[in-house]
Amino acid sequence: MHTGFNHKIKSELLNQCLSYVNQRQERILDTISDIQESLTSETKSTAGDKHETGRAMLQLEREKAGVQLAEVKKLQEIVNKIDTSPSSAVIRLGSLVETSQERYFLSISIGKLIIGDQTYFAIAANTPIGKLLLGKKVDDRIHFNGKDFKITKIE
After folding, report:
1. 3-class DSSP state for residue 40?
2. On the chain, which terminus has fewer CB atoms closer than 10 Å, C or N?
3. Model's pTM, two decimal places?
4. What is the DSSP track for 60-129?
């Protein structure tokens, strides 16, 4: 087992997850800032029905962005809990899992990540495939999307 190498892969996958969450947070904060600016200039403009409709739309946008920001904060909390230390015998948050079909990193759902020439899928523990994998061991089998998977390695 090349534990140092695999730890490096897990660290890189974790860094990609962190980067994804940070970029998403930045975009949402920029959106909130733009909305706030628009609300301020909207307040200074003329009164009337059109003005009130514009303000209401901006406030709805701000609420939506606030919800997205709360979701990103939850993702940050999950990423911060991920332990990339050497593997346990069972699949848990932070596990790198090789199956007969794919490679998975139990973290947050951001999809396909490529490191070197290898493809990994970053999946959350609360997704259908994540729920099937959690707690499983090497040589266990799962059935997902009409396919049978054998767990070949956990790191």
Report:
1. helix
2. N
3. 0.83
4. HHHHHHHHHHHHHHHHHHHHHH---SSP-SS--TT-EEEESS-EEEEE---EEEEETTEEEEEEETTSHH
Residue 137, token pair as written in the block: 């061991």
Q: 149: left (phi > 0), else alpha (psi -120 to 50), else beta?
A: beta
**155 residues of the chain, pLDDT tens digit each:** 444 557 889 999 999 999 999 999 999 999 999 999 988 886 666 566 677 888 889 999 999 999 999 999 999 999 999 988 876 789 999 999 999 999 999 999 999 999 999 999 999 999 999 999 999 999 999 999 999 999 999 98
Q: How many CB atoms lie within 10 A of CB 22?
A: 13
